[in-house]
Amino acid sequence: MNLKRIQDCERSRIERWSQFQLAHPWKTRAIIFCVAVIIALIALKFTDTDYQWVKFGLRRALLVGLLAVSLSKEKIEDEMIVSLRAKSFTLAFVLAVLYALVQPAVNVLVFNVLGKEHLNDTFTYFQVLSFMLLIQILFFEVLKRSR
Predict the structure, then answer these.
(1) Quick one: which H or E segment has residue 37?
(2) How far is Cα 145 from Cα 126, in angstroms, rounded to an integer?
(3) What's the rounded mean pLDDT across residues 27-47?
């Protein structure tokens, strides 16, 4: 196989993956799933038991649900929707990077104001990914409604 054919093959694979989307009915299902997971997380917060493995699973389920909402097609999928989706992904990425840079400084300031001795300045990838997906969904819906 020559180099040109290998490059074309790789380019076509990347193109297929970059255009991957779920069918429109998945959006409604994913929203219902996310709401159910959030309710379960809130209910788990008010119980006396400490099921870390359940929290772990529910958080991952929430990320999967948010990703499904983000990747679902609209009823009418045209060039404008594709453009708005790309803009919302760009904004979400930039804001997530800013969040990751600013959050430790905010933690230090808040803990200094409160006078706490122990500072846990780490945050999880769950926080960053859920923030990014929520921001992408929010910006996409705002941009879609304002066009």
Answers:
(1) helix 25-45
(2) 28
(3) 94
